[in-house]
Specification:
nine-stranded antiparallel sheet, mainly beta, Porin
Length: about 240
């Protein structure tokens, strides 16, 4: 997250302090429109921050993500001009992604305490989401313009199941999540549209693990896994391409 802020500030500062020879501007009044629309496509990288319980430490159990695979984001864009350098943006859309969660334990029967894996499963997500963002834009230089972002996102996971499943729903996760977002990007003004490239970090605000399914049940075979986890927070890095 700090690296994201640092890179964004470097890009913005460099742009503000760097003047170029004037060139012919494509669509010079694009950012003067009070409202404009577009669409966005991109990649997401879903992650969990997992805090283990004391029981997990005593039993020497480690819970983590084996790999993070890129998912897909598709959004509509509604952009509202608030002032010369500030816009409000709503980007309703959908996203798909997956994580590979595993439990590992130190086997006390192995002399060299070899780490072995005793369970792994894939966590799939299909989100309905609504990012609401403030976009602060630097001064336009010829046909490009850097910007910073801040805001929040609400996500609802349609792939979340109502009951435990050893292969697909080992842990119960709250399907509704709230996030705070920060990011930066660059707009490129083409002859007929504006292309935006953007990197955004989305931080989950709440502990989303649940101690039972939606019926209030916690089968005994799943209890040991739930008892190893104190909290779970979501984190998402998103790389987007906006067409406006």
């Amino acid at each position: 997250m700090r690296a994201l802020f640092f890179i964004g500030l470097v890009v913005l500062t460099a742009q503000l302090g760097f003047s170029q020879k004037s060139k012919v501007k494509n669509d010079p009044t694009h950012d003067d429109k009070p409202v404009h629309f577009g669409f966005s496509i991109g990649l997401n990288f879903l992650d969990y921050r997992i805090e283990p319980t004391r029981e997990a430490r005593v039993d020497r159990v480690y819970i983590g993500l084996e790999e993070i695979s890129p998912g897909i984001n598709i959004h509509a864009i509604s952009n509202f001009r608030l002032m010369e350098n500030l816009d409000f943006r709503a980007l309703p859309g959908i996203s798909f992604g997956e994580r590979y969660l595993y439990f590992k334990s130190l086997n006390p029967d192995v002399p060299d305490e070899e780490v072995y894996e005793f369970l792994k499963y894939k966590v799939e997500s299909s989100f309905l989401e609504l990012p609401l963002m403030l976009k602060y834009k630097a001064k336009r230089q010829n046909n490009f313009r850097p910007y910073l972002l801040a805001g929040g996102t609400v996500r609802y996971d349609l792939a979340n199941k109502r009951e435990y499943d050893i292969q697909e729903q080992l842990l119960m996760i709250d399907p509704l999540e709230g996030y705070v977002d920060v990011g930066f990007g660059m707009d490129f003004y083409m002859p007929y549209f504006k292309l935006g490239t953007e990197i955004k970090y989305s931080h989950g605000l709440e502990n989303i693990i649940r101690r039972s399914d939606r019926k209030g049940d916690l089968p005994e075979e799943f209890k040991k896994y739930t008892d190893y986890i104190r909290s779970v927070n979501s984190h998402v890095v998103i790389i987007s391409f906006h067409f406006e």
